[in-house]
Design a protein that fits this description.
heterotrimer; B: mainly alpha; 16 helices; C: mainly alpha; about 0% strand
Chain lengths: ~500, ~400, ~375
């Protein structure tokens, strides 16, 4: 089926997310939609899928103008979508999730769950998936959940399939397998729209590329174009994708993690005998696919992970078992992986967010009385120093862009007297400009002579930023290697292959 | 994985309590009357030595508690449900013996009365189930019951028809539910706030109309006909079961249908799957073309109809006239039953039965003059619910999206 | 800015919503009053013959009722003595005292993300503790009265704090727990009022003796008025709560918890402890309301000591947008409704229950600005970026 978008425009208030976008995807083609975070890719696909109503333009399928008032219409017209955040009900079984919305029924609207099971098995076998239709989705790994999403999209006999940033949660191997599935679908004659910001994937799988920036199409590109060319199209200027840093000036190993083991509330091991040391002036990167214990490691250091044994020492002092407050007070700077969820109070002003972890002590409080004047002075300073783009220090955090939010978090953490900096996925979801800024700040912290621990899920970031790279798999550190280790080898480690 | 230590500890505590009760059991004997006049065949009254019986039960409970400890700590196994159930029955029995020692306990009256008292609670908890399973927290059960009670009294009085009375009650329940739904779905007002405020509104409205309209025209507006007892042939004559379950009023039979119907609808039909998906993850439902808002409105309003129906029990079943604030917190107990029953219609109905039993026991105990102050029996539903939400009897988890408005961008 | 634009700005802003919400509720209340009025009913029987009769009857009933409401709550221009003229406003303040105190408590909870529906139970606990101190011994006024008030505060704090403790240790949902705790508290009070702990000697009813003279909150304007020292406590608490929430580091952490518990935790706020603290503070304020009732207003402990103040407090906190001064204003408004309704019932035969209707519709309207805008055809505010 030939999909054509003509002059699609979508506005949110004064903000134009999609500005007259044209796009054509032919049957039997993989069409890549390439753009930075925030360029408007997902918005466009949500318009196509009927989740948003466009403010202008039209959608054509095989030349016919479509009018989608909801996803139901889009699905009926033959469009399927594999969502970035899986649209699966965790407490339902695979079969229940897959049939949701077009359930096979017996008399009186009673569910025919047997028919549902069969459909799951049938599609599974076509793609060589091994999925139990009665498994509870919440118990499955993210890789398997994505396959459930794919089955779900295919069940409605979709002719156009949209993959929205599908590789963020996958290992390099799983990513390769997904590419294989996409090719298989293409060869069956489907039109595939693949949304991503990862140049490597685009060049590997795309038949055709459309690049969008700030809500506008900036041009078409060919998969044979160089990464540099694609990157400059995407960002709008020449970009240097490498991180600049001088050779490390290493000091003593002041941050040590020994035999750290942790269990989650369901009783399964999430950290398995993790040990490493970081020297002063070193960036130590934990790489690996999301969900392999990195979050738990960071939370264990901060002191909010329960059921942990082992030891975490900073300059010889034990951190494990201390409260979050004590951990922060002993000189741990912490940048959480989800800044809106854990890093900021969205309804607080920038100023209030800047004192979030020090509200009970000088200079911000005398006794329990807040010293607002001092806070406002401090906030003005930081606003300049970190180039936080906001109307004033009284702007609420939720009014800021992702990049500026992350700057507020960094400003807060870096203005304390740090002995170690721990940052989880510090550039997640940021635009290239902000990524560069965050990387500079992290390198500056390292050159200031403290150990730095970074959790990274993107392999490129891990190898560029790190002085050493540790790979985590299923709660274990499966290898600590130099950043110039070949990509294939790192990929194997990320999949748990240790030779 | 380690087994939770909560079960054996709870069993041990209750056993200890029973051991404490045993010496306090006064009176020599307890007589339990089982037979009723209509039984197919007669069963003689049971007579036990009161103290001896409690001691027997205490020993049984001790054995079960020890076994539970053994399973948990040595074998790392779960205590089987049947053991917990037997234990529970033994505990309740020992409390009953303590309360009724030296008197006659009419089992069928006690149970049938409990069932009757549970009727509005069960209807209310069905409303809660339909509402919360679709993602709308329903604090307004109280208002739905009260509106149903008021409307059924007025309409049944005017028309002299019980059937029209309950139809009107259902409509009133739907209206209250619609109010809850509109404010929480359309205007995105916090669902708990809406529920609380809607209750206040309904209390105010019914009380106002009661004082102005009903008080002056009692014979016309507030003297409804009442449900009549309908005995089902044969079934109604089986000892114990018959008089308790099958010699009841229309509304009780409707209640059986409601519980089974809500259960089947929620868990076995396409509609129920969609309802539950909306209550767990509305965005996911939206992306497969399910109309989230419509599903929410419909489910909440069907719930309202059931609660309204349950409300008619107060006027057409129990009292025979409407009185100010006559539901007296039953809606909150229904909510408690829903949570205690983990949002499952069957379990919620069983929990409501337990709460009805506690309420009825309170009346029975007042008659025989028992050692336990009635307030403590009345507290039972509330205390049990606190225990349930505090997770002392296993994990309680409601629908994931309950309480959160769905905002379409 | 030209005038038209200015007017548009004013009417599209959120500031006018409360005014129109109150207006809409009074209109709704008026409809009910007219509907239930006997003259209106009679006149409407021959509406098509003489429609003016019906309209006159409607206007008479509504204006009569609202005139009585005004005279009963603010200023009684028909009264004989100046003292009697100003008495209504003092009655309003007397009603506003417990409602505002408890409302402040709930506002602290709401601000901190804790839905404390348990005002009713916390008032009862405050009243029981204060009542116990007031009943069980005599002491010099300067010792006894503060002690009794403090006991009320502690009683509420304990009952509220227990909810916080349950939430902190087991994750129990505070909405459910506080609802259940309201009933448990009431049943406990009912039970204790039948035992020698509280029951007055030679009494069959569940009622206590009057509390000791030395423990009472003294009257403010003398014998003719119900106004008592509780009002001063209430006004002081408005400032205390404002300072706590907006000028202290404790309140900063409360609010951080309320907006985003995860971020608060990551920033080192001790979440379990803060849950307990918030609920204790919240309960303490409700407890003060209970103390004020038992030591100042009723002067003895009864089953109805908490009236519906705990429920009113929820609506007051919401109407006041959880801001201490807003809560005070809302408390006075609802106190006025309560006080005026008494005269409205006595003079015009309009049952006091109308207050509940007006009160709840105000809150519903305020919570749904689009509805109020639609009702009065107010312009929409400028769209803000999502």
């Amino acid at each position: 089926m030939r999909l054509e978008l003509k002059q699609i425009t979508k506005k949110f208030g004064d903000f134009t997310a999609n500005d007259k976008i044209d796009l054509v995807a032919e049957a039997g083609q993989i069409h890549c939609l390439l753009g930075e975070n925030g360029a408007g890719k997902s918005t466009l696909m949500n318009v196509l899928y009927g989740l948003y109503q466009a403010d202008g333009g039209e959608i054509l399928l095989d030349g016919q103008v479509q009018n989608f008032s909801g996803p139901g219409d889009a699905m009926a017209a033959g469009i399927g979508m594999v969502h970035q955040h899986f649209m699966l009900v965790p407490v339902f079984t695979v079969a229940e999730n897959v049939i949701l919305g077009h359930e096979p029924t017996k008399a009186l609207g009673f569910l025919d769950i047997q028919a549902a099971r069969e459909r799951v098995r049938e599609i599974s076998s076509r793609f060589g998936f091994d999925i139990d239709p009665d498994a509870i989705v919440g118990d499955l790994s993210v890789g398997v959940q994505q396959r459930v999403e794919i089955i779900k999209a295919l069940l409605g006999d979709a002719k156009v399939l949209i993959f929205d940033e599908p590789t963020a949660v996958l290992t390099p191997q799983e990513t390769d397998e997904l590419m294989g599935i996409m090719r298989q679908l293409r060869d069956e004659g489907k039109s595939i729209v693949f949304i991503t910001h990862k140049l490597r994937e685009v060049r590997e799988v795309a038949d055709k590329i459309t690049v969008i920036r700030l809500g506008k199409v900036v041009g078409e590109a060919s998969p044979t174009d160089s990464s540099e060319h694609l990157a400059s199209m995407m960002v709008g200027r020449e970009v240097d994708l490498s991180v600049h840093k001088n050779p490390a000036n290493l000091g003593e190993a002041s941050f040590k993690v020994n035999n750290l083991t942790a269990f989650n509330s369901a009783g399964s091991k999430v950290l398995d005998d993790v040990s490493f040391e970081i020297q002063k002036g070193e960036i130590f990167v934990i790489a690996g696919v999301q969900g392999n214990g990195q979050t738990e490691l960071a939370e264990a250091i901060l002191g909010i992970q329960e059921r942990v044994t082992g030891s975490i020492t900073l300059e010889g002092k034990e951190l494990l078992g201390k409260s979050v407050k004590k951990v922060l007070d002993s000189g741990v700077g912490f940048v959480p992986e989800d800044r809106t969820e854990d890093g900021l109070v969205a309804d607080f002003t920038i100023a209030e967010n800047l004192m979030l972890d020090r509200s009970d002590r000088p200079p911000f409080a005398r006794g329990v009385q807040l010293q607002l004047k001092k806070l406002h002075q401090f906030a003005e300073e930081k606003l300049k120093q970190f180039d936080i783009r906001a109307q004033s220090i009284f702007s609420k955090a939720k009014q800021l862009s992702g990049g500026n939010q992350q700057k507020v978090v960094l400003a807060r953490e870096l203005s304390r007297d740090l002995k170690v900096l721990v940052a989880s996925q510090p550039t997640r979801g940021l635009d290239v400009g902000s990524i560069e800024f965050v990387h500079e700040q992290i390198v500056a912290a390292r050159d200031g002579g403290i150990p730095v621990l970074i959790v990274a899920t993107e392999l490129d970031e891990a190898t560029q930023l790190g002085d050493r790279v540790a790979v985590m798999y299923k709660g274990k550190i499966v290898g600590i290697v130099s950043p110039d280790t070949p990509r294939e080898e790192l990929g194997k480690l990320m999949a748990g292959v240790t030779k | 994985m380690k087994q939770s230590k909560k079960t054996p500890i709870a069993l041990a505590l209750l056993t200890f309590l029973t051991v404490l009760i045993a010496p306090a059991v006064a009176g020599d004997e307890i007589e339990i009357q089982i037979a009723t006049k209509t039984d197919l065949f007669p069963i003689p009254n049971l007579v036990f030595a009161a103290q001896g019986f409690v001691i027997f039960l205490a020993v049984l409970m001790l054995v079960l508690a020890v076994w539970s400890f053994y399973l948990t700590f040595s074998k790392n196994q779960k205590t089987p449900l049947i053991a917990t159930v037997v234990f529970g029955i033994a505990f309740v029995a020992s409390v009953l013996v303590w309360l009724f020692a030296g008197a006659t306990m009419t089992l069928t009256t006690l149970l049938a009365g409990s069932l009757a008292l549970a009727v509005p609670l069960i209807f209310g908890s069905m409303s809660g189930a339909l509402s919360e399973r679709v993602g709308i927290i329903n604090i307004a059960i109280e208002g739905q019951l009260l509106a149903g009670a008021f409307t059924s009294a007025v309409v049944a009085s005017i028309t002299d028809s019980v059937i029209l009375g309950i139809i009107a009650a259902m409509l009133a329940g739907v209206l209250v539910a619609a109010l809850l739904a509109v404010f929480s779905i359309k205007y995105l007002v916090d669902q708990i706030i809406t529920g609380v405020v809607v209750n206040v509104l309904i209390i105010g409205l019914t009380s106002f109309l009661f004082s102005t309209l009903l008080a002056d025209n009692i014979t016309v507006l507030n003297q409804p006909p009442r449900f009549e007892r309908i005995s089902i042939p044969v079934l109604g004559q089986i000892p114990i079961i018959g008089p308790v379950l099958f010699n009841q009023t229309l509304i009780v039979y409707l209640m059986y249908v409601a519980v089974i119907g809500v259960f089947l609808a929620l868990f076995k039909t396409r509609w129920g799957l969609r309802v539950r998906s909306v209550g767990e993850y509305p965005k996911a439902s939206d992306t497969v073309g399910i109309k989230v808002f419509r599903t929410r409105y419909i489910s909440v309003m069907i719930g309202g109809a059931l609660a309204g129906l349950g409300g008619s029990f107060f006027t057409l079943g129990q009292v025979g006239a409407f009185g100010k604030e006559m539901t007296n917190g039953a809606g909150y107990i229904a909510l408690a039953a829903l949570i205690f029953g983990r949002w499952n219609p069957i379990y919620a109905a069983l929990a409501a039965l337990l709460f009805g039993f506690a309420q009825n026991l309170q009346y029975a105990v007042q008659i025989v003059g028992s050692p336990l102050p009635s307030e403590f029996l009345l507290m039972l539903p509330y205390v049990l619910t606190v225990i349930a939400v505090a997770g002392l009897v296993g994990k309680v988890r409601g629908p994931a999206a309950a309480g959160k408005p769905y905002i379409k961008s | 800015m030209n005038q038209q634009k200015l007017i548009r700005e004013i009417f599209s802003g959120n500031a006018v919503i409360p005014i129109f919400a109150v207006l809409a509720s009074f209109i709704f209340g008026g409809i009910l009053i007219a509907f239930a009025n006997e003259e209106v009913q009679e006149a409407s029987g021959y509406f098509f013959a003489r429609p003016m009769d019906t309209i006159t009857a409607v206007l008479n009933s509504v204006f009569g009722a609202y005139d009585a409401l005004f005279r009963g709550s603010i200023f009684n221009y028909q009264a004989a003595t100046p003292q009697a003229m100003i008495k209504p406003i003092t009655e309003t303040l007397a009603f506003a005292t417990p409602i505002t105190l408890a409302g402040l408590g709930l506002a602290v909870g709401f601000r901190s993300g804790l839905f404390n529906i348990g005002g009713q139970g916390q008032i009862i606990f405050g009243a029981m503790f204060a009542g116990y101190v007031g009943l069980s011994f005599e002491a010099p006024f300067l010792i006894h009265m503060p002690m009794a008030v403090l006991a009320g505060l502690i009683g509420g704090a304990l009952w509220g704090g227990l909810v916080g403790l349950l939430k902190a240790t087991t994750g129990a949902n505070e909405v459910v727990v506080t609802i259940m705790f309201n009933y448990i508290a009431l049943l406990l009070l009912t039970y204790l009022l039948k035992t020698p702990v509280f029951q007055a000697p030679n009494q069959v009813n569940p009622i206590s003796s009057p509390v000791a003279e030395s423990s009472r909150l003294p009257g403010i304007l003398g014998d003719g008025f119900r106004l008592h020292f509780g009002l001063i406590i209430m006004l002081a608490m408005v400032f205390v709560v404002w300072w706590l929430l907006y000028r202290s580091s404790i309140g900063f952490q409360f609010r951080a918890l309320g907006f985003n518990p995860n971020a608060a935790r990551t920033a080192g706020v001790n979440i379990p402890l803060t849950y307990v603290l918030v609920m204790a503070v919240s309960g303490a304020l409700a407890g003060l309301a209970g103390a004020s009732q038992v030591l100042g207003a009723d002067k003895q402990l009864t089953v109805g000591i908490s009236a519906t103040f705990g429920i009113d407090a929820i609506t007051v906190a919401l109407l006041g947008r959880n801001n201490p001064f807003g809560v005070l204003a809302a408390g006075i408004l609802f106190g006025g409704l309560r006080s005026g309704a008494v005269l409205m019932q006595a003079n015009q035969g309009v049952p006091v229950d109308i207050v509940l209707v007006v009160q709840s519709t105000i809150v519903l309207f305020i919570a749904a600005p689009p509805l109020v805008r639609a009702l009065f055809r107010l312009p929409k505010p400028k769209a803000v970026q999502a």
